[in-house]
Amino acid sequence: MSDATEAGGPAEPTGSDEGGAGGRRVRVVLVDDHRMFRTGVQAEIGRTDITGVEVVGEAADVDQAVTVITAARPEVVLLDVHLPGGGGVEVLRRCSPLMADAENPVRFLALSVSDAAEDVIGVIRGGARGYVTKTITGTDLVDSIFRVQDGDAVFSPRLAGFVLDAFASTDAPPVDEDLDRLTQREREVLRLIARGYAYKEIAKQLYISVKTVESHVSAVLRKLQLSNRHELTRWATARRLV
Q1: What HEC string does the chain produce?
Q2: What sequence ranges are listed for the domain HTH luxR-type (predicted)?
Q3: What's the rounded Cα separation, in Å, for the pair 87 and 123?
Q4: pLDDT higher for 2 or 235?
Q5: Cβ(26)–Cβ(146) under 8 Å?
Q6: Can you give the pTM of this predicted structure?
Q7: CA distance readout (Å), 178 to 130, 218, 225
Q8: Is the sign of the CA dihedral 83, 14, 20, 100 positive or negative?
Q9: What is the pLDDT of residues 62-120, one digit of tens each?
C-alpha cells in the first residue's frame, strides 16, 4: 500500500467495479501497529473484484487512526486492541461522533491476537460491533466485515461468552473493579510490565519517556495496592492480562 493510502488517501482500484460478495462493496480501514500484518490482511481480503472489500487506508497508532478514519469515512474499521497512543479503546472514544452518524455510521470490528476477556469487553463497551481473533480465515473475516457493515454483532465463538457473561447480569460488573480504576495507558503499561518489558522498551513502544513509564507504574502500584513489579506480574497473570 502506498504512503498516500496510509495517510488517508484513496486506495488504488484493485478490480472491477462490480466487486465481490454478490456485487456488494465495503470500504475498510486497517488499524494495526504491525505493518507486516496489515500487508498480509490487505493481500488476503483486499482483492476487491473477488471479495468486495476495498481497503481505503491504514494506520499504525491512535493519532494516525483517527486522522485516517476521519478522512476516509469507511463503512468498517478493522481495529487492533493494543496500539501506541492509548489502544483501540482510545480510537473508539475519539471516533464516537462517526459511530453515531445516523446516515453513514463508521462501524468497528476488533481484530486482535488477544482473547482476554478484559480486552473483548473493553472495546465492546467502547462501541465496537464485534471482536474476532487473528486466527480467523480470510473468508470468515470478509463475511464478518459485511455483517458488521449491516449492523450485526460478530464474535469469534469463544469470545461471545465473555460478552454474554459481562452484560447478562446486573449483579456483576462487566469489568474487574480493580482494573477499572486504571486508565487505558496505565493498563497498557501494566500489561507490558507483566510481560517482562524493561522501562526503556515500554517507553519506546508507547512513544513516551522513561520517566512517564515510571510515573504510570507508580500509579498502578498505588491504585492496586501492590508493592513491586513482581506482585504486579502475578496480579496481571491471575486476571489473564498477559
Answers
A1: CCHHHHCCCCCCCCCCCCCCCCCCCEEEEEECCCHHHHHHHHHHHCCHHHHCEEEEEEECCHHHHHHHHHHHCCCEEEECCCCCCCHHHHHHHHCHHHHCCCCCCCEEEEEECCCCHHHHHHHHHHCCCEEEECCCCHHHHHHHHHHHHCCCCEECHHHHHHHHHHHHCCCCCCCCHHHHCCCHHHHHHHHHHHCCCCHHHHHHHHCCCHHHHHHHHHHHHHHHCCCCHHHHHHHHHHCCCC
A2: 175-240
A3: 10
A4: 235
A5: yes
A6: 0.63
A7: 25, 15, 10
A8: positive
A9: 999 999 999 999 999 999 998 988 889 999 999 999 998 888 899 999 999 888 878 88
Close Cβ partners of 135 (under 8 Å, ≥ 6 residues apart) = 156
What residues have CB less than 8 Å from 105, skipping those under 6 apart?
98, 99
> What CA–CA distance (Å, rounded) separates 195 from 210?
17
Q: Output the nine-digit C-alpha cell for 144.
A: 464478518
CB-based contact 56:29 (threshold 8 Å): yes
How many beta carbons lie within 10 A of that of residue 176, not counting itself? 14
Reported as a single tens digit per residue, the pLDDT across 190-237 is 888 888 888 998 888 888 899 999 999 999 999 888 888 888 888 887
Task: Yes or no: say if 109 and 131 are a contact pair by the CB < 8 Å rule.
Answer: yes
Q: Are 26 and 76 in contact (CB under 8 A)?
A: yes
Cβ-Cβ contacts under 8 Å for 34 (sequence gap 6 or more): none
